[in-house]
Amino acid sequence: MKPSLNHQYRVSDLCLDNVIVKLVKSPESFLTNEDVMNLSKVNSLYREMIHDVIDLRLIDFTKMKEPRIGYAEQTAIDPTRVDMATACAIHYSLHPGMVIRYLKGKYLGENRDVNQILSDVSPSSMKLMPLISNGS
After folding, report:
1. What's the burial of 46, exposed, middle or buried (CB within 10 Å: 0-12/13-18/19+)?
2. Looking at the predicted structure, is the pLDDT value of residue 131 above 60?
3. What pTM was computed for the model?
4. Is 27 exposed, middle or buried (0-12, 13-18, 19+ CB in 10 A)?
5. What is the average pLDDT across 51-79?
6. Residue 53 burial (CB count, 10 A)
7. Using CA atoms, how far apart are residues 68 and 126, in angstroms rounded to an integer?
8. Torsion-angle region of residue 94: left (phi > 0), alpha (psi -120 to 50) or beta?
9. Among 23, 6, 4, 5, CA closest to 14
């Protein structure tokens, strides 16, 4: 759905856990520094999450859109890219659809050969697998 400032969306289970990142992610939030500090005292998970959100909101995640040569052959995940992806998710209030819309490209399959994929999965290209008998 296209983002809109003229619509409101409701959830059936509105609770602090579902909106806390949205409340904490922006320094211009209506929460004061004291409010944020008090929220971080609710429990250890809130403390860690608030610390991470405050740290990650300053990370530039625009490099996530740059092409990465050889990403398919990587043997380890770069922690810097994890931080950038998390910062992007925080920026978009943990809305995965908005993150994917921002990243586009390889994540949406724009660079895939659609005709080849359809040919590979079409019934005419599928070979029938022999049934494995259980000895009877």
Report:
1. middle
2. no
3. 0.64
4. exposed
5. 88
6. 21
7. 33
8. left
9. 23
Over residues 96-114, mean pLDDT: 74
Secondary structure (DSSP) of 68-108: -TTGGG-SS--HHHHHHHHHHHHHTTT-HHHHHHHH-GGGT
Angle at the Cα of 77 from the Cα atoms of 75 and 83, rounded to 5 degrees:
170
Nearest CA among 66, 65, 67, 56 for reference residue 89: 56
CA distance 97 to 9: 15
| Confidence tier at 7 by pLDDT (50, 70, 90) | low
